[in-house]
Amino acid sequence: MRLVTFTTGDDARAGIAVGDQIIDLASSGFEDVLSFLEAGDAAVVTARDLVTSPREVFSRLDVELLAPVPTPQKFICIGLNYLDHAIESGKEVPTTPVIFTKYNNAVIGPGHPIELPSVSDQVDYEAEFAFVIGKSGKNIRAEDWEEYVFGYTIVHDVSARDWQLATSQWTIGKTFDTFGPMGPELVSKEEITDPHNLRISLELNGQVLQDSNTSQLIFNIPALVEHLSKVMTLSPGDVVSTGTPPGVGMARKPPIFMKPGDDVAITIEGIGELRNPVVQGS
Ligand code: MG
Q: Which of these, 220, 282, 208, lies nearest to 252 by C-alpha position?
C-alpha cells in the first residue's frame, strides 16, 4: 500500500496511490494519513476493500501531492549514520546514534520549492531513507520493530552548514522553512522485501552526487526503534530519517552548495523519487 496526502485545491486529504490513480480515503472516514495510521489494522482492512471497489478516484495528474505525513508529532533525524559519510565529515564514527530534529515548518511535499534563506550561503543536500511509525510503543525491543513500523518514505535533510556547525547542536541549521521535503508516498513495509538493502541516490541538476545503499547504515531500523523508544513513546506518524550516505556538497573539493534554479532529486529503490526545485527565499 502506498499512502499519499494530496489536495485538489481545497483541503489536504489522504489517499492510496495505485498506478496513475489516487483513491480517496475520506470516503472511508479517514481525514488524513495520521488518522489512518492511528486506526491501525482496521484501517488497512478498510483500505484493501477500497482498492477493490473504490468510491472516489482522482487521476494523479489532477491532484497536487503534499508530504505524506505533513504534520508528524515527531520528525526525528539521525546524523552520521553511514560509515563513509561519518568519515567524509571528519567526525568519529558514532557508537551511539546522533539525534537531532526538524519541526513541521520544514515539511514540504514533492515538487514544492526548497527556499534558500538569505542568511545562509551554505545550503547542502542530503538524501535520506526514512521510516514512519504505525503503532504507539515505548521500550520496544529491537526484534519487535516490524510491529511498530508502518512503512517507509524519502526525506531530503536540507542543511544550512554555516548554521548547523556554528555550535555543537545541529537542529537550528536543519529546520529552516522548507528544509524537510518528504514523499512522494508512504510505502507500507509489506511492499519492501528488505529495507536494509535499498539503493539510495541523489542527483543535482542531473549529476549523481550520492549513490549508496541502506545496507551501509550503522544503526539500522531495529536498533533505532529500540534506542528512541527507551526515551520517548513512539506514536503513529512519527518520522525517523535515518541519515545520509557519502557525497554531500560540504565534503567536496571545491564544496557544492545549492543555488536558485537547481533541481534536486532523490531516488530510493522501491520507494520512489522525491524531486524539488530550489529557489531563493527570504
Ligand atoms: Mg542528515
A: 208
